[in-house]
Amino acid sequence: MRRDHTVGRLTVLTLVAAATAAVTALVTARRAARRPDGGNSTPDMARLRAEVREQNLRSRLQELDTAKTDFMSTVSHELRTPLTSISGYVELLLDGEAGELNDGQAKMLDVIVRNSRRLRDLIEEMLILSKIESGAFSALREPVDLVAFVERALAEIAPAAAKAEVGLRTEVRGPLPLHADPGQLDRVLMNLLSNAVKFTPGAGTVGLLARREDDEIVLRVTDTGMGIPAEEQKALFTRFFRASNAVRQAVPGTGLGLAIVGTVVDNHGGRIVVESVEGAGTTVTIRLPAA
């Protein structure tokens, strides 16, 4: 086990070090090309050499990016199997298959379940990210009604909202016909709702509106949470972005959710708009073509 862990760590460090060196060399080449003499008494030749170096370094960066994507995909797949085994055995223990549990043991197992789910979600996000970066992430559309997906997502998020003492307010006007990828649609809804609940303090409210407007299906999720600083909102759909106030308050998250949601919406020919006021809450509106 230790050998496997060390190899994985060395692989990550090697990729990071190589990418850093390549970026440094690329910046140096650009600076040389901008100098009046190109760092040489023959400006044209110096500029040409700098351009060739820059092209080679760009190719190297692309290779490193591909290697990083492949590594993420491989690690994510390898983590899935032991995680499935852990979750399965914990469920058996909770069901009393190995004997009756006392309250302390049940609470410990609940912690394992909760963190296993977090790890599962992280693995899924990493797998999706690797597909996006490799160009293999596409929507397999079929006729669906958004109403069924909304009802399922609300039922799934309700326990977390109740535990956080966050109220759920819904307004759904069906039917809401779409041509959409069911799995991706589920992910969008759960991401938006779980984020809204996670960033909303107790006694706050999360709202969900789903309705048809002309030839579009509108999905809107609002919350009365911490909001996002205005100067950071332009980075919302950037991979691994996390708002500074969320980091300060140690709210867990990977910063991949909205990046994935944005890609899913694009894949379905839709639009997404985020409006947020720090300290007052956030509204996410998605518009998708109606079937």
Task: Enumerate how many helices there are, as a single number.
Answer: 7
Order of helices and strands: HHHEHEEHEEHHEE
Beta-strand content: 15-25%
* The first-level CATH class name of the largest domain: Alpha Beta
Structural class: alpha+beta
Main sheet attributes: strand count, strand direction, barrel closure: 5 strands, mixed
Please give the share of residues in helix. Answer: 55-70%
Q: Regions with pLDDT < 50 over 5+ consecutive residues?
A: 1-10
In round numbers, the mean pLDDT is: 84
According to CATH, what is the topology of the largest domain? Heat Shock Protein 90
Assign the CATH architecture of the largest domain: 2-Layer Sandwich
Rg calc: 24 Å
Q: Give the spatial strand order of the biggest sheet.
A: 2-4-5-7-6
Number of strands: 7
Core attributes:
two-stranded antiparallel ribbon; Heat Shock Protein 90; alpha+beta; 7 strands; 291 residues; 5-stranded mixed beta sheet; single chain
Structure description:
- The protein is of the alpha+beta class and 291 residues long.
- It has two domains: 2-134; 142-289, Histidine kinase-like ATPase, C-terminal domain (Heat Shock Protein 90, 2-Layer Sandwich).
- The protein is built from seven helices and seven strands.
- It has helices at 2-34, 43-94, 103-134, 146-163, 182-198, 244-248, 257-267, and strands at 142-145, 167-172, 177-180, 205-213, 216-223, 271-277, 281-289.
- A hairpin with a 2-residue loop joins strand 4 and strand 5.
- Helix 1 packs antiparallel against helix 2.
- It starts with a helix and ends with a strand.
